[in-house]
UniProtKB/TrEMBL annotation:
Domain DNA methylase adenine-specific: 101-307
Keyword Methyltransferase (UniProt): yes
Keyword Transmembrane helix: no
InterPro entries the record matches: DNA_methylase_A-5, DNA_Protect_Modify, S-AdoMet-dep_Ade-MeTrfase_prd, SAM-dependent_MTases_sf, YtxK-like_N
Residue intervals of the YtxK-like N-terminal helical domain: 10-88
Identification of the protein by name: DNA methyltransferase
Keywords carried by this UniProt record: Methyltransferase, Transferase
Species of provenance: Lentilactobacillus diolivorans
One Pfam family of this chain: YtxK_like
Family matches, as SUPFAM superfamilies: S-adenosyl-L-methionine-dependent methyltransferases
Amino acid sequence: MSVLTEEQIERFFNILNESSEIIQKAKDQSYLDSLIETLDAVQDGDGRHLGLTASDAQRVTNIYAKFNRDDYDAETLRKSIQMAILKAIRLDKIQANYQITPDTIANVIGYIVAGIFNDKKQISLLDPAMGTGNLLTAIYNQLDRSLGVKPTVSGIENDDAMFELAASSFEIQHIHAELFHEDAIQNVLAPVVDAVISDLPIGYYPIDANAKGFNTHSETGHSYVHHLLIEYSMNHVKKGGFGFFLVPSQLFQTEEAKQLLKWMQGRIYLQGLLNLPGELFENKAAQKAILILQNTGEKAKQSNPVMLGEFPSFKDQTAFKKFLTEIDDWQQRDLL
């Protein structure tokens, strides 16, 4: 990353941060809520509608005057917003489902997606659990840079605050997106796409009645939300299309996995399961992997072999690049 880009990231972060701190103090509210208001107001360049005193409204308006959208590319803006959200998570002690997918992981997923779709002039993407939209916008920007393709994107998010952050992030980056403020498990009528990309929430889905229409629902008690979302996602992928999911490394080693595997038979090809480096996680139980699924139909076929393995440390650039080359070879030789 160039020094200029780092300076721009810091510059826009400072604009977001200074405004959010003023609003937070004036309204005695969370940093997160203040950031949401800032992201909305900075685009208008006007703080008068924020419900502040005339003095504070003028202060934030003066801060917004430092922001000229034309000075920034989308990726710089995304990184600045990411920094501000990370500060909100830290300051407000926000629960785990707000955690942002690290850029190192987003970049790897984007690399795999770019390799599979490298001959496409257009790609449509969906994230059924988009959170703040960071993963979806990171991959959008990566595909724009690496393939010269501006994907058509859609996202679903049930949480109010995360949805508002995502909507503002897309808008400020000038990324047109179809966003749904809904619970995907209630079978949102989202578009059918070339690929689903998602860092799936992990755990039990609380509303059993909503899960009953899914083949992956549990026969007793609550169902795993990540199983339900995988099924939902692949139902919204075209024939021969792909799903790229961040999942627990132990996904297929639980008792509940039997129902997931049963649903996949005859419908879905398991094309890859790539464990992320163990050093990124607190313990083995928390380790995650990139799951690559493909719908049957069109020219899709079961890859032989399935791509299984574990990424070397991201710090070992030689080994890391060698592993990426192995993925490239597998895509060309066994998958596509």
